[in-house]
Automatic annotation (TrEMBL):
<comment type="similarity">
    <text>Belongs to the short-chain dehydrogenases/reductases (SDR) family.</text>
</comment>
<dbReference type="Pfam" id="PF13561">
    <property type="entry name" value="adh_short_C2"/>
</dbReference>
<keyword id="KW-0560">Oxidoreductase</keyword>
<protein>
    <submittedName>
        <fullName>3-oxoacyl-ACP reductase</fullName>
    </submittedName>
</protein>
<dbReference type="InterPro" id="IPR036291">
    <property type="entry name" value="NAD(P)-bd_dom_sf"/>
</dbReference>
<dbReference type="GO" id="GO:0016616">
    <property type="term" value="F:oxidoreductase activity, acting on the CH-OH group of donors, NAD or NADP as acceptor"/>
</dbReference>
<dbReference type="InterPro" id="IPR002347">
    <property type="entry name" value="SDR_fam"/>
</dbReference>
<dbReference type="InterPro" id="IPR020904">
    <property type="entry name" value="Sc_DH/Rdtase_CS"/>
</dbReference>
Length: 248
């Protein structure tokens, strides 16, 4: 392994925003480890991304196994320069019908795994003297959206964690930032809009640019936070949303 080769980890990198981020990284010469649960999807993504894409099948809900996972990546590639905490799940359901088990499941995937991944990767980055962590939030953390109470709680936590992590880790050479995607054309948004055309129309009507975004828009923002052009930026939350969060 060439120790000058930058190494990135992208969770949930086999599809949607994660795939777009991994694509931007590999096209930029960054060795990118994509993590997901579905081996077939991972392999298909790697075949499309090329030789700089490497895969590891792992369920991030198994938090106790994350330290071993990160050690494996460190041993295999020699360094970890970038962590993108992208993996997440949604639950579209009226608040009064959400069970405690469902609420816990969303928070475990979207919050607990992000904390443990960041904690373990930070240990490696501190030894290197530098690193960049990029978390993925959502418009759900910017304003109230009905029927996504657990997802909203999780993404609000991500934005708070970003700031807290940045304060602790930046003096140690690790920048921590967050990208808050607006409504992007992905399978997740397609599911959210299924049988709910009024929801989509409402979103577009309050988006000044009048359209949904492309996964590549998010990838470009994540790449900015991941390289030297943002060397004096930490603890920032960047909305990439066509103006949705400030729309009326």
């Amino acid at each position: 392994m060439n120790t000058t080769q930058k190494v990135a980890i992208v969770t949930g990198g086999a599809s949607g925003l994660g795939f777009a981020i991994a694509k931007k990284f590999t096209e930029s010469g960054i060795l990118t480890v994509i993590i997901g649960r579905n081996e077939n999807k991972l392999q298909k993504a790697a075949d499309e991304l090329g030789e700089l894409a490497h895969t590891i099948s792992f369920d991030l809900n198994e938090a106790s196994g994350i330290p071993e996972l990160i050690q494996l990546i460190q041993d295999r590639y020699g360094r970890i320069d970038i962590l993108v905490n992208n993996a997440g799940i949604n639950l579209k359901k009226p608040m009064l019908d959400v069970t405690v088990e469902e609420f816990h499941k969303v928070l475990n995937t979207n919050v607990v795994s992000v904390f443990v991944m960041s904690r373990e990767v930070s240990k490696m980055m501190i030894a290197q003297g530098e690193g960049s962590i990029v978390n993925i939030s959502s418009m759900a953390a910017q304003y109230g959206i009905p029927k996504v109470i657990a997802y909203t709680a999780s993404k609000s936590a991500i934005e708070g964690m970003t700031k807290a992590m940045a304060v602790e880790l930046s003096p140690l050479g690790i920048r921590v930032n967050c990208v808050a995607p607006g409504f992007i054309v992905t399978d997740m948004t397609a599911t959210a809009f299924k049988d709910d055309p009024q929801r989509k129309e409402k979103i577009l009507s309050r988006t000044p640019m009048g359209k949904m975004g492309d996964p590549s828009d998010i990838a470009e923002a994540v790449y900015y936070f991941s390289n030297g052009t943002s060397s004096y930026v930490t603890g920032a939350i960047l909305a990439v949303d066509g103006g949705n969060s400030i729309g009326f």
